[in-house]
Design brief:
Blueprint (H helix, E strand, L loop, with lengths): L8 H8 L1 H41 L11 E2 L3 H16 L2 H7 L5 H11 L2 E13 L6 E11 L6 E9 L9 E2 L6 H11 L2 H19 L2 H8 L1 H24 L12 E8 L3 E4 L8 E5 L5 E6 L4 E6 L2 E6 L3 E9 L5 E3 L4 E4 L8 E5 L4 E7 L4 E6 L2 E6 L5
Antiparallel strand pairs: 1-2, 2-3, 3-4, 4-5, 6-9, 6-12, 7-8, 9-10, 10-11, 13-16, 14-15, 16-17, 17-18
Helix pairs in contact: 3-4, 5-9
Length: about 400
């Protein structure tokens, strides 16, 4: 025990039980390290849980409603949407008015113009998200648009607010028909990633379809302008008709516009088609020397013409203008019933100025007693047999 002389009792205890002490110290260190690691792990889990909760809260409306997107989950909605798009393609005003909450006359004019080019809306799929009102849904309608004279279908996607009225009748609302609160909620639903993915997929498919059909791509490049041009004419015609009806017994303050049509001839043998497209049905061929009446030169590179009393279309770059016929505003007119020569004298011996196709309108100066009608053509006085006009 001499070797323990001068040592404290603690030092003597450690010397005697150093293995036990070492083991205890190691165990304490391990416990401390484990506690630290465990707390770090718990903190990480808690952070992830809170982030997930926040994410889930962001996917819900303030009333707890889920914005989850469902595909074809409501047959009654699919039926209404399908019926509505069929009416759009067929210009069925009654059905459209029954389904839309509000539709103006300008809306109807736009639908009527587009229906002239649209064959059908095919393969309709309805994606829905629950809206706040009872029975109401945000609907994203996916379809394949079939245009007349084209085989390639164009993918499309459009959003609607579907909300039955007080009597339970199905109604489709557009943005202009709904409140700011609904618009705000609709935008929150629309902003969901799965909805954005859907729009991106359809946009990609649309561009791919055009890339595979160069003629359709060229056609669609001018489609909006063509529709706008037709809309302006349709609205102007309706407005003029309404104004004429309202002021039929009064003089109008502004004169009506002149009506001018061109006489054209093909520069080569070319097809007359039923529609303004290379894929339109051929109604026959005409060649150089044949005179046609051009009703209108379209923005898409085609001319709307009359030949043998029937309307058709020819590529404008295959035509040349050989004359024009302007009818003054308010002037009396006659319409050609059968193809007839326009002559410089009221006689079969008179020189032929032009050939008038059935359907061509001519400004009437005088219906003469000798069986001829004096008309104005291309700025000059001319004559046609009265039996050929009405």
């Amino acid at each position: 025990m001499k070797k323990d002389k001068g040592k404290s009792k603690f030092e003597i205890f450690v010397d005697k039980y150093y293995m036990l002490v070492a083991t205890l110290v190691f165990a304490v260190c391990v416990a401390v390290v484990f506690a630290v690691v465990f707390n770090i792990a718990r903190a990480k889990e808690e952070k992830e849980r809170k982030e997930k909760m926040q994410s889930e809260i962001g996917m819900l409306a303030p009333d707890g409603r889920d914005y989850a997107l469902e595909k074809d989950a409501h047959p009654e909605i699919n039926e209404v949407i399908t019926r509505y798009h069929k009416a759009l393609a067929e210009d069925d005003e009654d059905t459209i008015s029954d389904i839309l909450v509000y539709v103006s006359q300008n809306d109807m004019d736009s639908i009527a113009v587009k229906s002239e080019y649209i064959d059908s809306y095919d393969d309709i799929v309805c994606y829905t998200q629950k809206a706040e009102a009872d029975g109401a849904y945000y609907v994203y309608v996916q379809y394949n648009l079939k245009l007349k004279d084209f085989d390639t279908k164009l993918p499309g996607l459009i959003g609607f607010y579907y909300c039955p009225d007080e009597e339970g009748n199905p109604r489709i609302c557009r943005q202009s028909d709904i409140s700011e609160d609904v618009i705000s909620d609709f935008y929150a639903a629309y902003s969901r990633q799965e909805v954005q993915d859907l729009y991106n997929q359809v946009a990609l498919a649309y561009n791919e379809a055009l890339d595979k059909d160069e003629e359709l791509k060229s056609y669609m490049d001018g489609f909006d302008d063509m529709v706008k041009q037709e809309m302006v004419k349709k609205i102007a015609l309706r407005s003029a008709t309404e104004e004429s009806s309202e002021t039929s017994s009064e003089e109008t303050s502004e004169p009506a516009e002149e009506n001018t049509t061109d006489q054209v001839e093909p520069t080569t043998t070319v097809n007359i088609r039923a529609t303004a497209s290379e894929k339109g049905e051929s109604k026959g061929q005409v060649g150089p020397g044949t005179t046609l009446t051009r009703i209108e030169e379209l923005i898409n590179g085609w001319s709307h013409v009359i030949y043998n009393g029937e309307e058709g279309y020819i590529r404008s770059d295959y035509l040349k203008v050989v004359g024009s016929n302007t009818i003054e505003a308010g002037a009396k007119t006659v319409t050609v019933k059968e193809g007839v020569n326009i002559r410089n004298e009221a006689s079969m011996d008179g020189s032929v100025i032009a050939m008038a196709e059935p359907g061509t309108k001519l400004e009437l100066i005088e219906k003469m007693d000798n069986g001829w009608s004096k008309v104005k053509y291309n700025g000059q006085t001319a004559y046609v047999k009265s039996d050929y006009v009405e």
